[in-house]
Amino acid sequence: MTMIFLYGPPGSGKSTVGKLLAEALQRPFWDADAAIEAQTGLRIPQLFAQQGEAGFRAQEAATIAHLLTQGEGVLALGGGALLAAAVRQQVEAAGPVVCLHAPPDALLARLAAEDGERPLLAANLRDNLTQLLAQRAAHYASFSWQINADRAPETVVYDIQVNLGLFHARGMGDGYDVLVQPGGLAQLGRMLQARDLRGPIALVSDEHVAAHYLEPAMAALQAAGYAVHPVVMPPGEAHKTMQTVAAFWEAFLAARLERSSAVVALGGGVVGDLAGFAAATFLRGLPWVGVPTSLLAMVDSSLGGKTGADLPQGKNLVGAFHPPRLVLADPDALATLPPAELRSGLGEVVKHGIIGDPALFDLCAQGWTAVAQNWPQLVSRAMAVKLAIIQADPYESGRRAALNLGHTIGHAVELASGFRLRHGEAVAIGIVSEARLAEQIGLATTGLAAHITAVLHGLGLPTEIPSDLEWTAVIRAVGVDKKRQDGRVKFALPVQIGDVRVGIDIPNWPELLAITD
């Protein structure tokens, strides 16, 4: 994705949105009209008057061709820049074209607001806007990516990122790109080259994932000239141990990895956490890339730079913050996941909807068939929620604790079950339990727990602590939760869909849960 193009009628906010999008992605921004005016010293209407439309379009085409040589970035195009088939073909070969649209009254209002800065442009187009929109209606509608621009620019930018599956996580180190790209695994080598990552590469995976994706990943890396050394572990949470990390270190030594080498984690959350932690600690820190292949890893564990391993006493008690250089989620990889694993991942997706995206929660409420029809959009929306939170609180000092919703009880249930329950299943149980706690203390709206329960049931997820689990084992596991503060467990609890409060101390939580069970 070399360039992202913003297109649409005059007044649709291409320049304003483009600047904000470029800032969010940490990429350069260019405005084709502004570049033409800088080159000629004339305003666009003056160029039209002097050269006619044919002369102006030739000037515009030459300017766009030059800007296409500048590398990755965001480019705002003039409202008729892609009318010529040759220019459109050239642009669409270089990246996605996002067409912004808004009602005529909104376009006119924006053009009127530009009077002070560009009076000739605004005056010229206000008189002819209705006719122009009618003439170009079919042209604008022919672009695949359509975004409603009649909203706050920040909201428009968010929607563009979700639709394109393109983000840049900031707040920890230099930041890193997060990409949701069907078929992206085939481009893995090129993506590492673009980020100046060097070999030899340690390609870490587990036996289940390796059977499907190790060879394609190796082929993509080798095609880019990398020497690749596969490191394959047994699958499952039971192997998320320091012994496995030590085995990785031994494999890295055997592969002669250097401090400029990279580790690629190809797999689910266990692979990502362990490979990231091994990279963080080998030679005092190697760069690494996350290629999550499970829904759970895509929407949750691959983001945020938290790496680690389990101890017998609890999950993720050993670890480090070590952000990756890139996260590439290829939704095509979900095709080989069994339904039970997909449903497990949906536990985290629902959680993200509760935390910060009611529309995502509503999509999940439509049930399995609805969510399974568009995995790329589901993954992208869920990722966007977590990214917004971790960018605001990269080291979990405040707001990021909202992501612990369902995890305080969920991790304890998962551990007490001996990992018989999948992580997302345990989180689903934890979300309902903690929603009940929120209702018990008067924090949540009445009926919230029942509403969440119905949505989770519709996705085939459990919502009750299994009757064969020892309640004392669950309580004991909560007591060693890594999120304790001053020796006390602090809960993240839902108030309503889209609103979660953090740092809630409930000393008698076991008794309250016993009442609701």
Strand content: 15-25%
Total of helices = 21
| CATH classification, class level of the largest domain | Alpha Beta
Report, as a whole number of angstroms, the end-to-end distance.
Answer: 51 Å
Structural class: alpha/beta
CATH architecture of the largest domain: 3-Layer(aba) Sandwich
Number of strands: 16
Number of discrete domains? 3
The major sheet is characterized as: 7 strands, mixed
**For the CA atoms, what is the radius of gyration?**
25 Å
Q: What is the 3D form?
A: globular
Uncertain residue ranges: 117-122
Oligomer: single chain
Mean pLDDT across every amino acid position = 90
Fill in the CATH topology of the largest domain: Rossmann fold
Q: Can you give a write-up of this model?
A:
The chain is an alpha/beta fold. 50% of the residues lie in helices and 17% in strands. It has helices at 14-25, 32-40, 44-67, 85-92, 104-113, 119-141, 153-164, 188-194, 207-223, 242-254, 269-281, 295-301, 339-356, 358-365, 368-372, 375-392, 407-416, 423-440, 448-458, 471-479, 509-516; strands at residues 3-7, 29-31, 73-76, 97-101, 145-148, 166-169, 176-180, 198-206, 228-233, 261-267, 288-292, 306-311, 314-321, 326-329, 490-496, 499-505. The strands form 4 sheets. A 7-stranded mixed sheet has the order 6-7-14-11-10-8-9, sandwiched between helices. The protein has a 5-stranded parallel sheet with strand order 2-3-1-4-5. The protein has a two-stranded antiparallel sheet with strand order 12-13. The model is unreliable at 117-122 (pLDDT under 50).
